[in-house]
């Protein structure tokens, strides 16, 4: 197929030298996928248990699975027992493991155990999915605005309200209800599944990397794919599938006054930042953008096809230089362009002798930038700038934390299976999206297992995940369960 084409970069619009489109344009059309008889049985079974699903969600929400305070340890173990009861009912062999402790606000706390589940039928040629789920919620006393008790499920306006309804407990129960429907209808589950369940996701999963590495060669030695549902749709109406996300580097710049300096430490910090980022929020560090993926015609078509994003809603919030951008440039700016943000506040430490200021700044990195190389470029640039500007004050830059970016090919079989299942259930071709945020757990799963990772959201945007009045629409709670059933059948039929 040959089509005239224009694509954009951060500076202007240019005519591409590649006029031939790949598979995206040919494949990305709306079409219906028949509901196979097996799936039809499962859909009818799921539709018949709305009241039971509601009851199960209320039970799960009642557990105050807050990992930051030891006083909720009993609640976490109560939820663990609830999970084990589900696993026992479904024939999922399971075992829990202690993963040590971590430090929060200067206090050492014991981390909740990680539970592994195994639903595997020996022999055969079934594919093996590794499903990651989490069960914890944030401490609700730190969240203002709840109109109901966050740990007592309330049904209102065809929505189920409660802490974890849309984020943790809801996703877990969608999987359990899905597998239960297979067993109730005496339909063989078409894949092997190995579960990872934790209750420290809101702490960025400390201990998870070390634990998975230790278990990789035995428990996880035969997995083919990794699946998680930790995200949400781009908008409230159309389903989405996430195939990538950006990474972040978190730095601290420290400037300390010295005796032979004639400049103010605040001015020195400001002058250094001026050489790192311009007024358009573009990073100006030499060679920093060299490894960023080039825009292709196929990729731009993906952005153009997204239905769930209305640029008019966000344009008033953008800086003046971006308010004339169209949908494609705005999304690319969020998802595939490096940027830097500098904390407006300076922490001033003024001892009796030499004052010090500390200022935090964040750098967004994208595929195919290498984190270590990006850190070195920042450090080198700050050092060179100090010398160039002849700054006499003591300047130090330190990396505080980092989150690696991730990206999968949306054309691979796993993503096409998710796409076909979405069309079956929602009668809509899903938006293929990236995220403008770091996903610590996805990068851990990707690094450890070195397998394709699918992020398939089950809820629409606007469900207040992890904030006040979190909820899941009743319809989505049911449809998400159906989506998982359709997905498992599509994985079975995937071409090798």
UniProtKB/TrEMBL annotation:
It holds the Pfam family Peptidase_M20. One of its GO terms (biological process) is proteolysis. InterPro entries: Cyt/Met_Dipeptidase, Peptidase_M20. Transmembrane segments: none annotated. One of its GO terms (molecular function) is metal ion binding. Keywords: Hydrolase, Metal-binding, Protease. This is Uncharacterized protein. The lineage of its organism: Eukaryota, Metazoa, Ecdysozoa, Arthropoda, Hexapoda.
